[in-house]
Design a protein that fits this description.
The complex is a heterodimer. By secondary structure, chain A is of the alpha+beta class. Chain A has 6 helices and 3 strands. Chain A has helices at about 20-25, 80-95, 100-105, 110-115, 125, 130-145, and strands at about 40-50, 55-60, 70-75. The termini of chain A are far apart. The chains are: A alpha+beta, B alpha/beta. The interface of A and B includes residues 27, 76 and 121 of A.
Chain lengths: ~140, ~400
């Protein structure tokens, strides 16, 4: 029991998720249901069940433009982890798809911003999408060699 | 997936808090408006308030087979637990500075013990087995000459395990030298188990009104006559100087009514609830694969069901179930303020990935078969949905 100073009782500790998070939790986009019949160009994993969040990402890359055509995922995690994965997959493929360079530079802050924010304590543990995407890109680059 | 909510609500989180009984509420509402006097005042308004408190104290004493003078009204379970641990330890520190408790106590006990550790007390936190029960032998061997207090919860809030309170009291009674004071947190037990303090053999016991279909914000601590205890809230000297602050007579009245009612309904309620709980559990086990029951079934509260559904993270499940009108809870780290999985599930040595997938359903007096059937149907749907997007199967 450490001494505490007066804090604002609602200093980011609220459980209220934004509408955007709710929307992506209930209607997640780009989940890969049938892994066996999906020929991905790159595959990335991050996290583990022990830490509460584990995510798989599969990407397909346009052979000519070298941009991400499809970004699919499956994740074990809380509502914000699912919403963040869904949002990441949209960001990776929108506007003609990200280049490999853009995908490797995607930051968790950008995902959270598009979700309209997350409770403070959820930020670091539940936003894994950018890391899984980075691993999928590395896998693609390795395969492409 | 259709996420239109049809307005159904099924409340299966009665261990968290219970709805208020309508009869209790009716009486309490009357008292809230009419019985506004300060119980310490000498005028009629004050005397009427005082009378209500005294009657309530006697009613509670009757249920738990104690003397009215042995009941201290507090703001609820947490305050009663804090008062028991801090108050008894601080008042008896000249006799010793060792305390024994368990690893699955409510945080109101554990964190009070942590405060005492900083004051120079030493605390033994007893392990529990996979059924959530402490070992009497481990308790015996942890008693030292300077053990002044033993605090073991009657029934656990997360997994509903019921500790052998009488047996513990028996062990302590047999000690020929200094007998440690025995406190039990009966917050979860009060609505469904026998809370006769003489039969149990406890020196101190916590009861919360909010878990027994009474109002929130009130509870009591039973302290056996002759036990030394130091007040933790000081001021006007109410409650025999052990808990200062103007009493809320209407809440106290509601609490006493709720406890009296719970005592009367106990046997019938338990029978109905345990049947529903077992039906619910068997249906889940037959309809959903890879489900693990957390804690043992033999010594367990009739209303508690705690299970881990592999691959289905608890917070996700709770939010989805809530969306379909079902209130339940989880021990998953993702839903806790400190992002640690439940200390109770960790003490049971449940693998951490399964602790993340835990869900607790606690039935209540008003739970119906129709509600359970709807919950089973919804759970099957939500589990399939979450598993379809899970990376762990």
């Amino acid at each position: 029991m450490s001494d505490k100073s007066v804090q604002n009782c609602s200093d980011g500790q609220d459980w209220i998720y934004t509408d955007e998070v709710r929307e992506h939790f209930f209607f997640p986009k780009n989940i890969l249901f049938d892994e066996a019949n999906y020929n991905a160009d790159g595959f990335g994993v991050v996290g583990s069940a022990e830490c509460g969040d584990a995510m798989n990402v599969w990407i397909k890359v346009d052979p000519d433009t070298k941009r991400i055509l499809e970004c699919k995922w499956r994740t074990f995690g809380c509502a914000s982890a699912i919403a963040a994965a869904s949002m990441m997959s949209i960001m990776a493929t929108e506007n003609g798809g990200m280049t490999m360079e853009m995908a490797q530079k995607l930051k968790p802050e950008q995902i959270v911003e598009r979700l309209g924010g997350l409770p403070d304590r959820k930020f670091h543990c539940s936003v894994l999408g950018h890391k899984a995407l980075r691993n999928a890109v590395l896998d693609y680059l390795k395969n492409a060699k | 997936m259709n996420i239109m909510n049809e307005g159904i609500r099924v409340y299966l989180d009665n261990a968290s808090t219970t709805p208020i009984d309508s009869e209790v509420l009716l009486n309490m509402t009357k008292n809230l408006s009419k019985n506004y006097g300060n119980p310490s005042s000498l005028h009629l308004e004050g005397r009427l308030s005082k009378k209500l408190i005294n009657q309530s104290r006697q009613a509670i004493a009757r249920v738990i087979n104690a003397d009215a003078k042995e009941i201290i009204f507090t703001s609820g379970g947490t305050e009663s637990d804090n008062l028991a641990i801090l108050g008894i330890a601080r008042a008896n520190k000249h006799s010793g500075r060792h305390i024994i408790t368990s690893k699955i106590e409510h945080k109101a006990i554990i964190d009070a013990c942590k405060v005492l550790e900083q004051e120079g007390f030493s605390v033994t936190y007893l392990d529990v087995d996979k059924n959530g029960l402490i070992s009497i032998n481990a308790l015996k061997s942890s008693i030292k000459p300077d053990t002044i207090l033993v605090s073991i919860m009657y029934a656990n809030n997360e997994i509903g395990s019921i500790q052998p309170i009488k047996e513990i009291a028996g062990v302590l009674k047999k000690m020929d030298s200094q007998k440690p004071i025995f406190h039990t947190d009966a917050c979860q037990a009060a609505v469904s188990l026998d809370i006769d303090v003489t039969k149990l053999g406890v020196d101190s016991m916590t009861i919360s009104s909010s878990k027994i279909y009474g109002p929130k914000g009130v509870g009591c601590l039973y302290v056996k006559n002759g036990i030394k205890i130091a007040p933790q809230i000081v001021g006007g000297g109410q409650e025999g100087g052990l808990r200062s602050g103007t009493e809320n007579s209407a809440l106290i009245g509601g609490f006493a009514d709720a406890l009296t009612l719970a005592n009367k309904k106990r046997v019938n309620d338990n029978q109905k609830i345990v049947e529903l709980r077992d039906y619910f559990m068997n249906e889940i086990l037959s309809k959903i694969k890879n489900v693990y029951i957390n804690g043992g079934m033999e010594y367990r509260l009739p209303n508690n069901l705690n299970l881990s559904i592999k691959g289905v993270e608890g917070e996700s499940l709770i939010l989805m179930m809530d969306h379909y009108g079902i209130a339940c809870s989880t021990g998953s780290a993702c839903s806790s303020s400190d992002l640690n999985p439940s200390h109770v599930l960790m003490a049971l040595k449940i693998p951490i990935d399964l602790a993340h997938c835990s869900v607790r359903f606690t039935l209540g007096r008003y739970t119906t078969k129709q509600e359970i059937d709807y919950t089973i149907k919804t759970l099957v749907k939500c589990v399939a949905r979450i598993r379809s997007m899970s990376s762990i199967l």
